[in-house]
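Worked Example 4.2. Consider the chain below.
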Amino acid sequence: MKSHAPKRRGFTLIEAMVSTTIAALAGAALLQGIYSSIGSTKSAQEQTIAAGLAQQMMDEIAGKIYCAVRNSPYETSLGPSAAEQAGAGRSLYNDIDDFNGIRSGPVKDPWGVAVGDDDGKGGSRHPSMRVASSLTKWRREVDVYYVSNSDLKTKLGAGLTSDFKMVEVRVYIDDPSGARRLLATLKRVFAYVPTL
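Applying the procedure from the previous section yields the following structure tokens:
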């Protein structure tokens, strides 16, 4: 007579525990990868927004004249005059050095209206058309200074002038911890070319 071994009908407790452990480890690795990917995506998104905000400000500055008084490019006091500050936001800024010392947060348009609320014409959008802005924790700073004629990376001291002004735009975001994180810096040199 043949002896028949009993057929197995399931997993042993050890096999079930091993397979559960392997599945848990694989799930943890997958979740870690997803979490890391989300963090990288958020960081890339912030960098892109910051670069756009810096470029927008630089484009606004580049659209202005080099100096307020024709053929008088060597002003030692850089920044807006009292008359230029009397306008809404930056609406009366007419030359490059007027932007020196800007420290704005939240980010605002040329008329001083927070981005997301502005209508692009100096006013605010209808309340139902406003963007729930995530830009309230963002900051923009602008510095304008003279650089050396022979080395455009060398900043000149107070009272010294040249034919070149450096414009530096920086964009920060406030972290939940309260610290400021620099996300973008954009620099451009503007040259004085005399008119005939």
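The helical segments are 13-62, 82-85. The chain is about 30% helix and 15% strand. Compare this with Example 4.1 before moving on.
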